[in-house]
Amino acid sequence: MSQFAELSPQQAWQLMRQRDAVLLDIRNPLHFAAAHPQHAFHLTNQSYGQFELEYEDDHPVIVICYHGVSSRGAAMYLIEQGYTEVYSVTGGFEAWQQEGLPIENVS
After folding, report:
1. What are the Rhodanese domain coordinates in residue numbering (predicted)?
2. Distance between CA 24 and CA 42 in Å, rounded?
3. What 3-state class would DSSP assign to 7?
4. Rounded mean pLDDT of 32-44?
5. pLDDT for 31
6. Rounded distance, CA 45 to CA 87, Å?
7. Residue 107 annotated among the catalytic residues of the structure
8. What is the DSSP code string of 18-71?
9. Distance, CA of 42 to CA of 94 (rounded, Å)
10. Which one from 40, 65, 74, 89 is the annotated catalytic residue?
11. Looking at residue 83, what DSSP letter applies?
12. Separation of alpha carbons 49 and 46, rounded Å
């Protein structure tokens, strides 16, 4: 895969459950702390090194943002870094919530 693919929130959740795909939430710390998809990894400039240590470049990776726009750029960046199976969630966290998919609250 030299390009990322778009997934619906439901497809992303399925991929997480069936293939242990990692969901990378790239929203700011305040919004992530308020609520985020269950089992999401908060990807920031500071946590990128930890992400690289935990996940091989062939591990399925899904990126989610607020509305599904910024995640596309982050997905493309991950492809450029050598990750081979990268997806972006269409509609972002807003769509994830509307679908009624599992959410965690940190604060």
Report:
1. 17-105
2. 6
3. strand
4. 96
5. 96
6. 19
7. no
8. HH-PEEEE-S-HHHHHH-EETT-EE--TTTHHHHHHHS-TTS-EEEE-SSSSHH
9. 16
10. 65
11. -
12. 7
Nearest to 106 by CA among 51, 56, 18, 33: 33
| Residue carrying structure tokens 């996940």 | 55
pLDDT in tens, 47-105: 999 999 999 999 999 999 999 999 999 999 999 999 999 999 999 999 999 999 999 98
- Give the whole-angstrom CA distance, residue 105 versus residue 83: 29
Torsion over CA of 41, 37, 80 and 3, rounded to 10 degrees?
A: 150
Task: Tell me the one-letter amino acid at 94.
Answer: E
Residues making up the chain, counted from first to last:
107
Q: What's phi and psi for 51, nearest 5 deg?
A: -55, -50
Cα(35)–Cα(18) distance, integer angstroms:
23
- Judge contact between 93 and 86, C-beta under 8 A: no
